[in-house]
Write a structure and sequence with these properties.
Structural class: alpha+beta
Oligomer: single chain
């Protein structure tokens, strides 16, 4: 079984600000507020969370194949 990575760097699609965040292990994170421009990020259609849409790593449930 592959090791699940618990951190992902989110990139804001509006201002390109990047920040590494810890991901929740038991759920998906639907909203994320960019600390640079203040925009509220939501997942792209078909993605379960902001990490899957804007992060360097998908969320732990997706990594685990859940």
């Amino acid at each position: 079984m592959a090791k699940i990575i618990l951190e992902s760097t989110l990139t804001c699609p509006h201002c390109s600000h990047r920040k590494t965040e810890s991901m929740p292990t038991d759920s998906c994170q639907y909203f994320y507020k960019c600390e640079s421009c203040g925009r509220l990020l939501k997942p792209k259609p078909g993605d379960c969370c902001v990490f899957c849409s804007y992060g360097t790593m998908p969320c732990p449930p997706i990594q685990a194949g859940s």
